[in-house]
């Protein structure tokens, strides 16, 4: 008789009366300080109100949407503590003295009140992500949050994820979903790789052919499996984002505490530009096309020529980009610029001579310096891939190293701010398994454990007391073999979850075994709840 009774009770509970509050020890990324108060849990019901101080109104609405999805409860949003009175509440409080650091939050749950204190939008957003993890992941009438106090702030100031939309473009809805993923993981930067040889993806008013011509190629990837070579057919493929779409995305990200850094990759990786405007190349006589396959295009011109038309183009394009994106930084690319076309071109050689540039590396630096100058007029700093250091640059340029750690170390020693994104282990286009049947990827094996164990500040810089030049790190998602959103999700999860803890949590607090436990208990159900693709077999391959 007892057993059916227990079963009945469990059924009633799971049908949504009530749910146990999740453990305060399962939060990802691991918070700096958690103090379980051992008191009665705090209930959250449809009667609970969300109260926000004026600067956090949009975050209150954001939280309302998140709770609606997670709990199936629609909470009312009111402005200011007075309006809420003594009602059970979740209070988003602007409180610089309680949370003095950038992006810091203090979360307190006690009695019938949950308070998230912060002094800036990212801080309050991080607090909300923690709150979501203290609430059950199911539809309920009454949810409970354990009585707790949490003080939390990030280890690194720059915590980024990148997405290449040139090799494959993704719908606006997915870009927003990706931003939601970043926000959940307490990243603060979305690096949007908008241009490359295989397609230009941003509306530019002054140069319409960038999108009418440069956004389209005549090849579509159809083979995605490791046990097959990549296969393409000759279907037209492409698209681009309008400025209105971009504004909408930038705003969406800002509400979630995420800065969007656009990348316009020059002076190499410029096939799409040259297909649209051959006059910016060293061989304007040729009918160049947007690249149909991947790889470096040494033999098929993808490098801009240094002439007055090109520099006018760059000033105009970066001007429009600077006006569109509020980000304090713009990424100017600078990677893998082949020098052979400059070497072979008499006009380029004459330009170099006239400007006192002794080799092509200096010419590359000249390009970067010009663009940095255009952007400085708009109050923006540049970020560039580490090759921008082939020549001498002023130290306001932020260096993103994609090779190994060594380029990052060299940049820090020159006193440049550095964003670490070494291919191993931060390229999430590499394989997560050794399974020969795995979905097609690049660059060999780069498992979850390697990402988790990554330390952004190399020992050499610690010894030299130069660790402060490391702004943070970033996971890169090159999409040559990611033709649709769920493939992106499959490649980033769970590795970006591991990276979030690398970037947020103090080094001495990291623990791989504990992380994997939290991953299983807290994140796997969440990937499923989000309806996301993810790599399931990480236990087997790490
Ligand atoms: C190198 S990393 C590139 C990208 C490719 C990537 C593939 C970098 C700055 N350039 O153009 O997509 O390898 O992993």
From TrEMBL:
EC number(s) reported in the record: 3.2.1.52
Cleaved signal peptide residues: 1-19
Root EC class: hydrolase
UniProt xrefs under Gene3D superfamilies: Chitobiase/beta-hexosaminidase domain 2-like (3.30.379.10), Glycosidases (3.20.20.80)
InterPro entries recorded: Beta_hexosaminidase_sua/sub, GH, Glyco_hydro_20_cat, Hex-like_dom2, HEX_bac_N
Catalytic activity: Hydrolysis of terminal non-reducing N-acetyl-D-hexosamine residues in N-acetyl-beta-D-hexosaminides
UniProt domain Glycoside hydrolase family 20 catalytic: residue ranges: 156-506
GO BP of this protein: carbohydrate metabolic process; glycosaminoglycan metabolic process
Ranges where the Beta-hexosaminidase bacterial type N-terminal domain occurs: 26-153
Assigned GO CC terms: membrane
Keywords per UniProt: Glycosidase, Hydrolase, Signal
A Pfam short name: Glyco_hydro_20
CDD domains the record matches: GH20_chitobiase-like
Any one Gene Ontology molecular-function term assigned to this protein's record: beta-N-acetylhexosaminidase activity
Active site positions: 336 (proton donor)
Sequence similarity: Belongs to the glycosyl hydrolase 20 family.
PANTHER family the UniProt entry points to: BETA-HEXOSAMINIDASE (PTHR22600), BETA-N-ACETYLHEXOSAMINIDASE (PTHR22600:SF57)
Name used for this protein in its record: beta-N-acetylhexosaminidase
